[in-house]
Amino acid sequence: MAEDLEQKEMLAEENPAGGSDPGQGAALESAGLGEDKDDVLTPANIRLKELEQSLVSKDNEIETLRQAKEELEARVTTISSSLAEAIASYRTRVVAANPE
C-alpha cells in the first residue's frame, strides 16, 4: 500500500498535468486545448460555488427545521399532559353528577 502511494507520488511528479502520459499535458497545451480546459473549468468552478452556497443554505434550513421540531415536540407534550388532566377532571365530574 505504501508502495502504491510512492508510485502515485512519483507519477504525479513526472506528470503534473494529471494525465496518464507524461507528454500529454504538453501536447494539450501545444494543441491549444489548455484554453479549452479553462473554458470548461470556469463554468464548473462557478457551478461548484453555487452548489456550495446551496449546501450551506440547506444546512441552515435543516437546523431551523430541527429547532422548530423540538419546540413543537415540547408543545405537543404540554398539550397532551393538559388533555389528560382535562379528561380526568371531566370523568370525575360525570361520575359525581351521575351517582348510580
Task: Explain what the structure shows.
The protein is mainly α and 100 residues long. The protein has one domain (25-97). Helices cover 85% and strands 0% of the residues. It is built from three helices and no strands. It has helices at residues 2-14, 24-30, 33-97. It starts with a helix and ends with a helix. Mean pLDDT is 80; it is low at 16-22.
- Strand portion, in percent? under 5%
Rg is: 34 Å
The helix content, as a percent range, equals over 70%
The overall number of domains is 1
Query: What order do the helices and strands follow?
Result: HHH
Contiguous runs where pLDDT drops below 50 for at least 5 residues: 16-22
Mean pLDDT: 80
The number of helical runs is 3
Number of strands: 0
